[in-house]
Structure of ABC-type quaternary amine transporter:
Amino acid sequence: MHALSIEGLAKHFPGGSVAVEGISLNLQPGSFTTLLGPSGCGKTTTLRCLAGLEVPDAGRITFGDDVFVDVKAGHYTAPNKRHLGMVFQSYALWPNKSVMANVAYPLRLRGTGRADAEGKARDALSTVGLVGYEHRYPHELSGGQQQRVALARGLVSAQGLLLFDEPLSNLDAKLRLSMRTEIRRLHDALGYSSVYVTHDQEEALAISDYIVVLNQGRVEQAGSPHEIFAKPVSPWVADFVGFDNIFEVDTANSSEERIALVGGGELAGDVSQSTLRRHGSIAFRSADVRFAQELAPSSCVTFRGVVRASSYLGDAYRVEVEVAPDTRVIATIPDSSREQVQEKYLGATHEFAVETTSL
Ligand code: ADP
Ligand code: MG
């Protein structure tokens, strides 16, 4: 198992558009790493530079002792010499080729003899649990089996490194969940390193050992799924991972007991200014807000406000709490009775409590 190292990777496209703007990462041998970020943040370009399908403008990529590319040294290794497997978003199989021919195709393409290619294809099919399906055609397989054939085709030429570019985004929700588990199982069984690209935070949390959040071609945050989900380092990451309450703190008007918010409103609590990181903001999820009497107040911030709007989510109510004329906090209150929320809470002033994250 080898470590994957990316140093100072940059890629600009003609017309001045910047896709990747200085990415450096050290990925542990055997780890499952996900590049997570919104559309256009540079995920595919980074992956294509790893695969050798794109030549970067700057930077160096090594996998163990193999130098994939070193721009300064003028070194570039062709894609078929990198011995990695790649699974793309468009999973399409060739409809008029058998399962065996589909999986062996990448090897045949690079000149591997038929017997050797078919032996390796058989191994890959065995890895994905499709022994006995070699002579079928794609239309004779279920959707899930077709996806496994595509996975086998991606694996067949890999020796230690797998790259996935949103491989599940064209699948229906149920198949997406089972293929996600399948991909992780394959990674563990093979003991390879994987780099996986997705814009779906839930998918990233479920499948990864390590998540790299990209924003406009740069690393915004990198860490374990728990760190990314629970301890975002910036308002941008907090927003991306679903913190639906993010407030800039008016530090000049705040004290040790009161947190004044830019735009009006205040929270009471022990978030002193010294704990605010460089962004001067606090964030929390609506699902973590409780009525103050239900939470031990010691570790929490509390606030008072009027419940202005309430909508039913099936197992909870999403309410908007007005803490100042232009400032509303979103809270998701579990409750089994719609009437109760509307009668007891709507239009009434209540005290709430929540644990916040400083940004
Ligand atoms: P992602 O996969 O995160 O959606 P991409 O890596 O595909 O992002 O694209 C990053 C940026 O680079 C986008 O602004 C995109 O328009 C631009 N880009 C990607 N490929 C090309 C290309 N071949 N030519 C010009 N611009 C490109
Ligand atoms: Mg992409």
The pocket of magnesium ion (ligand 2) is lined by residues 43-44 (CB under 6 Å). The chain has a mean pLDDT of 89. The radius of gyration is 25 Å. The domain at 243-358 is CATH 2.40.50.140 (OB fold (Dihydrolipoamide Acetyltransferase, E2P)).
